[in-house]
Structures are given as structure tokens and as C-alpha cells.
Amino acid sequence: MSEQLPVSAIHPLAPEFLSAAVLYQAPIDLEAAVARINTIWNESVEPVWESVPAGQLGAGSSAGRIYRFTLEGILVMLTPVPEKLQVERGNLPDHSFYVAITCFAPLGDQAGNGEIGEVDDLPSQRRKRMLTAHVVLTELLDVLLREPAAVGVYRQELGVVQPPEMIIELANSLTQGQAPLPLWVAVRTFRPDLANGRTLGLPLFGHLDLEVVESVRSDEEMYSLLANISDYIVSSDAFLMPGQTIGYRDGEELQITQGTSPTDGSAVLRIQY
After folding, report:
1. pTM of the model
2. C or N: which end of the chain has fewer Cβ atoms within 10 Å?
3. Per-domain boundaries in the chain
């Protein structure tokens, strides 16, 4: 194995914020929806409404209200918006109302919990905090998407709208100690000729996205590979590094290199498969 650079020189630092937008066909009772966390997930929260002056959430933003609470040390902020969500690319399903979600996963006691002290390993701690933030987001989406008017949840980083039934079904895997990976990381496969595959969402966990290019494998094999490896690195303390190999089925040793994705120009870890 060749000499390796430090992990922090290869992989991005996991962010402190996680966001999503839940789309609805009509306005909902946000307080009643959030209250389901207590009954469905046995989590106790004490939400409060806060007024937000115009411009506080960014240039041109209007005045409004935020429903705010802390869960598992994650500061959750919900903003009901009585209009359609505007996106830069693509089209969203028809809707007339949405709830913007921000999960703030700070290190230290910025969320007011005082649970985390001195940070010795910033990349590792940020990864763990974002894993917790994804669990909190999943529980929250589960209760919000049980509303009859729910259309789905839009995740900009994943480039998808996930339907209510998908969220509710996969969220239940948390009760079995399993990560609902399809809710957290998108796996795309495409084949102009040979098979290609790519993940979206791993930088939120402090990892480069994964990519396979021009493989003779089937789309199903490609999806399974990327999903399994993503689940492995999200659920463990492992990092993949250029120059390493990773063991896979039937004793295969897959070579890992660093490259630039032709789809969007971002840095990726390329797996020879």
C-alpha cells in the first residue's frame, strides 16, 4: 500500500447544518405533527415559537416564525412557508405549502445542552454529530410525513423528492439499530454504454462521494456495491483512502483511487469494479 495522506487532507469536514423541505398540498398543524415525536419515537421535546425579523435568514428573506426545539443535542428549527418551494434546477411535485427544516449539530454546547466538552478530533466528532443529526431528521420526517396533505421531502444534496411511504417504512429501521441508508445517501446508476454509478450525500458525513465508471457489471451489482460500501463507512469509524483496496464479495479486492467526477466536477473516490 502506498504512503497515505492524512484523512483530513482527502475527505471534507462534515458540516454543522443539515436541511430539508417537506412539501404539502395544504397547510398543516405543525404543533400537532411535531407532538407525534413523543408518542411514535418516545422522545420528549419542548418546542417554542420564535419570531424572525425580515432579513435575518438571509438577504431578502421575509419576516416569519420558527418552531424551535432541541433533540439529542441537535437544535431543530422548523419554518412553515405558505407558498411553493422554489428550486434552481428541476421540477417539484405540485404543492402549495412547505416546512423548511434545519438541524444544527454544533460541537460544544452551542445548542444549549452542554453535553460535549473539548474536541480532540474535530473530523471524527463532526462525523458523529452529523450521524446523530441524520437520525433526528429521520424521526422528524417520519412524523411530519404522516400528515394526509404530505407530498414528500426534498433533499437538495441528494437531488430527490422522497415520498411519504418511503420515509415512514425506512425510518422504522432505526428501531432495529440499522441505518435507513436510502434516506441519507442517494445511489445513481446510468449507462450510456458501460455501467456507471455515483453516490450523493456522503460529504454530509465527512466522506468523499463514491464513483464507478465504465464497468461491465449490471446496474443491480453497481447499486449493491455502492450502497453496501456507503452503509459501511457511514455506520463505522472507517475511512476509504486512495491507494487502498477494499475487500468485497467472493474475495474480490477492489482498488480505490481519487478522481474528479465527469458528472459535476467534484472530487470523488473511484472504485475499480
Report:
1. 0.89
2. N
3. 17-178, 185-271
